[in-house]
Amino acid sequence: MSELTESEAAARAEMEERARRLFAGPITFLKSAPALKFLPDPTVPEIAFSGRSNVGKSSLLNALTGRNSLARTSVTPGRTQELNFFDVAEPVQMRLVDMPGYGFAKAPPSVTEQWKRLVRDFLRGRVVLKRTLLLIDARHGIKPVDEDMMQMLDEAAVGYRVVLTKADKIKASELAATVAATEVAARKRTAAYPQIHVTSSELKMGIPELRAAILEDAAI
């Protein structure tokens, strides 16, 4: 990747600071939607967070917003089975959507099918959905269930960014290999954004850059 020019670096720093201020402001839980009929009115841009169960979605949401308990974290995979909406700013400028985790082996088939229907219908029909963030555990890389989700996003024509989580949990050489493999996989996908975001919720690694990307995607 080529180095940024002075003006590009300044613009990026300005965007990161604007994103920091936005996420440091009021952010409130709006509602949970177990079915499409419970969705909030599509009045503002939305950014969705998707990933395997226990990938760290709640921790990443908390890190992005500088809160400790905006999104519930749990050691029990598969806990979130609804679309959870969070309003950002006052008046509301955008919404963050915490999607149900997927790939939990012990989930009953009925729960898995319900998840698929809810997510597929949401992705295909939500006109205000500007981007989905697909979280991948850096320790494991892209798994078959992640590929299934990527295919669903491709078919729904929903642009998505791949976000590696828990990057602090592996060696630098292993992380570099995971990033390279993920970049190769993303380039094969029609709806994937080419840039891979590398993050650690604990160390706040990559958080300012991801905040800025979300702001850019929401176009606010």
Question: How would you portray this structure in words?
Answer:
Belongs to the TRAFAC class TrmE-Era-EngA-EngB-Septin-like GTPase superfamily. EngB GTPase family. GO terms for molecular function: GTP binding; metal ion binding. The protein has 220 residues and is an alpha/beta fold. The protein has one domain: P-loop containing nucleotide triphosphate hydrolases (Rossmann fold), CATH 3.40.50. The protein has helices at residues 6-24, 57-65, 109-125, 144-156, 172-187, 207-218, and strands at 27-33, 46-51, 83-88, 94-98, 129-137, 160-165, 192-198. A 7-stranded mixed beta sheet has the order 1-3-4-2-5-6-7, sandwiched between helices. A hairpin with a 5-residue loop joins strand 3 (83-88) and strand 4. Helix 1 (6-24) packs across helix 6 (207-218).
Q: Nutshell version of this structure?
A:
Residues 43-220 form the EngB-type G domain. With 220 residues, this protein is an alpha/beta fold.
Which sequence of SSEs, written as H and E, runs from N to C? HEEHEEHEHEHEH
- Characterize the main sheet: 7 strands, mixed
**Which assembly state applies to the chains in this document?**
single chain
Helix coverage percent of residues? 25-40%
Report the β-strand fraction as a percent range: 15-25%
Give the radius of gyration: 17 Å
CATH homologous superfamily designation: P-loop containing nucleotide triphosphate hydrolases
First-residue to last-residue Cα separation: 27 Å
Order of strands, main sheet, comes to: 1-3-4-2-5-6-7
Number of separate structural domains? 1
The CATH topology: Rossmann fold
